[in-house]
Design goal:
By secondary structure, the chain is mostly helical. Helices cover about 80% and strands about 0% of the residues. It has one domain. The chain contains 16 helices and no strands. Helix 1 packs parallel to helix 7, helix 2 runs antiparallel to helix 9 and helix 10 crosses helix 13.
Length: about 450
Amino acid sequence: MTPGFLHSARRIVPLAWPVLVGQLAVLAFSTVDTVMVARYAAADLAALAVGGAAYITIFIGFMGVVMALGPIVGQLFGAGQLAQAGRQVHQAVWVALGVSVLGCSLLAFPGPFLALAQATPEVGDKVRGYLLALAFSLPASMLFAVYRGFNNAVSRPKAVMLLQLGGLALKLPLTALLVFGAPTLGLPAMGVLGCGIATAICMWGQLGLAWLTLRRDPFYTPFHITGRSLDAPSRPALLAQLKLGIPMGATILVEVTAFSFMALFITRIGTTAVAGHQVVINLVSLMFMVPMAIGMASGTLVAQRIGAGDPADARGLAWHSLALGLAVALLMGIGVYLGREAVLGLYTGDRIVIAAALPLIAWLVIFHLADAVQAITAAVLRAYRIATVPVLIYVAALWGVGLGGGTLLAFNIGGGVPPALQGAPGYWVAATAGLVVAGALLTGFMAWVLRASAAQPVPAV
């Protein structure tokens, strides 16, 4: 390890760990739901898998559009243009409200997702109730994404982390109460519906605390975010955010749907198969939070150095963050694989579900390494306000190789697929291959961008 690497790591880690803790709190929302519903009923767990796939598809895609605020504010912050960074927050609020209208409509009418999953009537009814509850939480989630994106961009991730931990502290007992009920209080057991209601309550509470923080913390005073009415929509500012945000959202949407549609298609194989898949996808999502946090931290620092007119430092941070992410991902992947049975036992005591999940774990190390590469390189490219080319890479790799190839293997389309690669394992084999392709292409493209920035330095904002 060179001194340059260690210097970069000392700058990345203080920003990455609060992002990681906060994101783990966010993921713990679905983990809490999965663990509790798994102990409630298999039909509710299947509904959670389908409903969760639908919600994540909508939420993550639209959140990507809102999160374009991050690279823009990061560059402005690095350039010392604090008031202009605050004005970008007001425009991001309009973006968040706009995508919320569309997102709530999709959640309230989930027919297309149910058709893809070919869910039974019982599971379908549970999915509808769950998604309707989440429709009420979506506006709060989108507006909180504005708060999150701004704070991460100005190197203040702890302000986000504390609220996310507070939301989780409320989510855990509230979900238990609503899922299993409280007969002494006259509260019936709601199963998966209770998960959705608990999430909605927690997200609106988080948003309220975020607003109070912006108003009362003197750190935000130079940005002039509060203490005045919401700025009117600005066409140039909105177009700038959407120009970056739409491809960012599309990139994340392709990534998420490549895996959420796996759950929808695996549902056709059977309840046991989708239950095993749900456990493993939650596990790898939990692991993904580490390289994601490193990517977000490095993206913040790279954007700030671009804004400050220091492209050489930006390039060094980009490569060092990738090396750091790979080292951590390798250690995590090997550790989880070696202790796979004990880890799966934390999710469920159902030996049938564990047996369905174990073959999927076989691909975990390679899957996680490739996932780390694509997450960090994509974050660095966003810091340079580059998001269109990654969309094309994700479509080819994750939809084409991953989802398309997985469908061919899982359902033995064309014949000749070995039995070991049919069913849910087929999707995981293809998804791993797709991530490897995506990671390789994104790394190559990032190298080209960094070389180009050396030849023609990126101007300060």
